[in-house]
Specification:
558 residues; mainly beta; 6-stranded mixed sheet; 5 helices; 32 strands; globular; lignin degradation; Laccase
Amino acid sequence: MNSQHYCLLLCLLFLAQASAEIHYYDFVVQATPVKRLCNTHTIITVNGQFPGPTIEVHNGDTLVVNVVNRAIYDVTLHWHGVRQMRTAWADGPEFVTQCPIRPGGSYTYRFTIDGQEGTLWWHAHSSWLRATVYGALIIYPKQGSSYPFPKPKREAPIILGEWWNANPIDVVNEATRTGAAPNISDAYTINGQPGDLYNCSSQDTVIIPVSPGETNLYRVINAGMNNELFVSIAGHAMTVVAADASYTKPFTTPVLMLGPGQTTDILVTMNQPAGRYYIAARAYASAQGVAFDNTTTTAILEYKFAGCSAQPMLPLLPAFNDTFAATAFAAGIRSPTQVKLPDPVNEDLFFTVGLGLLDCKIGRTCGGPNGTRFTASMNNESFVLPSTLSILQAYRSGVPGVFTDDFPRAPPVQFDYTGASVPRELWQPVRGTKGLKLKYGSVVQIVLQGTNIVAGENHPIHLHGYDFYILAEGFGNFNPETDKARFNMMDPPLRNTVAVPVNGWAVIRFKADNPGVWLMHCHLDVHITWGLAMVLIVEDGVGELETLEPPPADLPAC
């Protein structure tokens, strides 16, 4: 490189850094009274807002969020989908990368968002606090850049949530005490409101104003706890342009399906007669015989001059168990151009994901089937969070007894994973806190294989600290001899959460280029509560840019 080119490169780097900004937010976690479904409830919020504040940044910006805990519960916050390059201390899962912020305590999350654009979100990552502690995280293109599609007239988040009349912490604590499944939610919400189809709710239904002819960008987030959701807009087609803060090939669809944790950006053109049109969401319930919330939440797309007395039209949503619709939607999501996949694979892993049952303690009867206790696992290991020190702190400080690094690279026993009658001796996993070490720079491919133990179900599997390519999905047992021919090596989607099909499998690939301890788990919170999780421990590479930053001085004490 000659001196002229070198100077030009330095100038470009300087300009890129000069255009980046630092955004400061103050988050106060506090108890707040809100009225929903005819009654006033005290819930945990950030800054008294439900949903919480929307964070807006540009690609390349830095976020500094000071969190003060004025609630009665321990809390942490997770920045869902943010890569957190070398800043695992800011990732947020309780007892994985930090100890919780105790009542009265505080912690400042500091991290840079680089190379990501689109819609992510933030949420509590302690117990079930995320039922009400969540908000949107919007990443605009770098200053001076633009979307890879025509600029929309307006933008708005559409945040799907799940509401309990009871305190969600009480709900999960009762289930943990008895071993039974937790009570199902009482409603779904859009931007915090249930909508017209619930009692005492129509006066607060969310209204999104539009004008004829405009094309708008809506950022759809499934912040629900335990249900995947179908979403549709009456009379209007939706063009998907991004998912999990990665742009996609645009494709038009009448319905979306989002697992908890997933986001989808859509363009909608207002090409219908002036009127009022429902945006509606209800469950995709893939597990047979399992209770679920079968209600429908709505918001209203309201055209200018439509008149507020006009009765909105309801969209046609798929049946609750319409796996074909869910599969067709997932198949439509592709990267916008041909991608350069990391290669060659040097960590070829196979993880089963599914439910299980544990025997109750002698002399007790638990609330699960036949007096057992519900559990869940990956490769027959049911994950138990530490309680005295975070895994990341134990790993970096060499503290023994907090975790082990012997998570199995494949199931300890091979069996007919999705068969109708899995042998009962395979229903009881082993409880423990296990991780798997990866060398920096290794190329990792994981087969995520669902099982039919207790009940087959679609599992939204989220990996912290990484995006990954989804090479293929299918039903039944993954067959390496035949299914590799189905891999999409051209334009696979880049996601942070993959919905593993019910009684099926998905294959993901990524390069382990971010040192730290990274939680991989099912984003159905009932399942992570039961142990459907593990951690990947990515070692440092060579030099400062491949090494985890030191822990911040204000990291919460354990």
